[in-house]
Write a structure and sequence with these properties.
Low-confidence stretches: none
Radius of gyration: 12 Å
Number of strands: 4
Helix content: 40-55%
CATH class: Alpha Beta
CATH architecture: 3-Layer(aba) Sandwich
CATH topology: Rossmann fold
Mean pLDDT: 87
Distance between the termini: 18 Å
Number of helices: 5
Strand content: 15-25%
Order of helices and strands: EHEHEHHEH
């Protein structure tokens, strides 16, 4: 199963450098379209969505995080970094897929 990222262009570029494909989104319509496409894909196991992009579709993200099992939807820090009340990106990835980065 693959890991896929939906986020701002810089995040998608950064993840692509380590071999994770993704799709940049800057509007709610683009985020919803990217989610629809990835949820229909049979080979994606984990979808990482950056916080800045997730804020564009809060109610859908909340629903997916609670109910989606395959693929697993995980919110990761956006370009502003980790909020003090949130785990680091490395911790989020370790919890989600069991890989320490």
């Amino acid at each position: 199963m693959k890991v896929y990222v939906i986020g701002n262009p810089q995040a998608v570029l950064g993840f692509s450098l380590v071999g994770i494909s993704g799709r940049a989104a800057t509007s709610a319509a683009e985020v919803n379209e990217a989610l629809d496409d990835v949820l229909a894909a049979k080979d994606v196991g984990v979808v990482l969505v950056t916080e800045d992009v997730a804020r564009l579709i809060v109610s859908r993200m909340d629903n997916l995080k609670l109910h989606s099992t395959v693929p697993l939807i995980v919110e990761v820090p956006g370009p502003e970094g980790v909020r003090s009340d949130q785990p680091t990106l490395a911790e989020v990835v370790r919890r989600a897929i069991g890989i320490r980065i």
